[in-house]
Amino acid sequence: MQHGKSCFFVGIGGSGMMPLAMILAGQGAKVAGSDRSLDSGRLPAKFDALRALGIDLFPQDGSGIVSPDQTVIASAAVEETVPDMVRAAELGCPRMTRAELNAALFNAAGTSIGVAGTSGKSTVTGMIAWILHSLGGDPTVMNGAVMKNFVRPDAPFASALVGSDDFYVSEVDESDGSIALYSPHVAVLNNVSLDHKSLEELRTLFGDFAAKARTTVVNVGDAESAALAMALDRSRTTTFAVEGDADLSARNLALEAFAVRFELVTRDAALPVRLAVPGRHNVANALAAIGASVAAGIALPDAVRAIEGFTGLRRRFELVGEANGVAVIDDFGHNPDKIAATLDTLHAFPGRVLALFQPHGYGPLKVMRRELVEMFVNKLAPGDRLVLPDPVYQGGTVSREVTSADIVADIAASGRDARHIPDRAAAAAHLVAEARPGDRIVIMGARDDTLSLVAREMLAHLES
């Protein structure tokens, strides 16, 4: 497919679809696609960037699918009733899921590095990409987030790198079970916690993935990952932990507002490291990336030197700006572990936290209700404010058994300041009105790139 064949992406603007479309286009495939956001006029810059790569874009009305020679790629979120899918069925077009396509490219690589875990996948993938690239490698990289190191005027949405077949680096997704499709040479297991599936299902998926690899890099500072590591061949396993015993251990952490220092301790060395991204969770991410890079043939001192130049991902604790003494931060936090890490990072320094959390769907709210509530009750500090608008909804059928109002009621019952303001613009305006010098406003959520626009609008209102 990647050498001159024709393919059509249904939902091409999605965080997992866009980088694959860019990789195929860069490898010479004829790529076209459609997207609901394109039809509704949202995020025009993203679609302009795809057009600049020679990718043809069509309304999601079936008009772009014209031949049975086109392979149609769709994510699991695309329903069979979407006109493009109806047209593909009528023409008998071959079909692939997003994960099937990514796994095919991944499994064909000379060295495949797969990054798994409930949290931190995109950051670890970006760190590995930067280490390999900055040391003269030419990796192909599939990331679910924009890697700021690789953003250029001609690549404003750099969630992919198109390189050689020697290295293929990709985050791999457990939410739909598609992690089972991947056969990694190097597997990273960053952490295991509740998100889209039960812990029993996750243990099986992550354990099977790790067992396939030539080398598995495991966070034994995470209890669930450590338990899975016990079943792995120790000679093919590299362990890491923050302030714990492991092959790669981080000691003497020194937190900064938007950076962190630590000492990387191995059996043979102790190396100082300064990351240009903040938080204890990013120390764990860095250990994972360094371990994976060493497993792929990079010398440890070189990997350490390179990772210091990693500048982060868009929407991962990204400082949008500061106005009248109030900082605005855009963040991808959407499950209990990710949100907790963001709140911990903020609470390491003085100032109230004013949080807007837009849930990424009604289904995840139902699965994570108890864990989300417990996390917010434990992690919100006295004086903090939390506002939840209604969950993101981008069409299709959905069960609304648990809503933002339910989550807020549970949190408020435990004495924390939480409010349900259904309309997102009204929720944002409420926090702007509440803000005073020294506060940090953080906008959190996934599956909705327009959250970044909200963050910029809030900053603009603070400036006015």
TrEMBL record:
InterPro entries in alphabetical order: Mur-like_cat_sf, Mur_ligase_C, Mur_ligase_C_dom_sf, Mur_ligase_cen, Mur_ligase_N, MurCDEF_pg_biosynth
GO molecular function: acid-amino acid ligase activity; ATP binding
Keywords: ATP-binding, Cell cycle, Cell division, Cell shape, Cell wall biogenesis/degradation, Ligase, Membrane, Nucleotide-binding, Peptidoglycan synthesis, Transmembrane, Transmembrane helix
GO BP annotations, alphabetical order: cell division; cell wall organization; peptidoglycan biosynthetic process; regulation of cell shape
Annotated ranges, domain Mur ligase N-terminal catalytic: 9-107
Domain Mur ligase central: 115-292
All residue ranges annotated as the Mur ligase C-terminal domain in the record: 315-447
Pfam families named among the record's database cross-references: Mur_ligase, Mur_ligase_C, Mur_ligase_M
Membrane spanning stretches: 7-26
Name by which UniProt lists this protein: UDP-N-acetylmuramate--alanine ligase
Organism: Sphingomonas koreensis
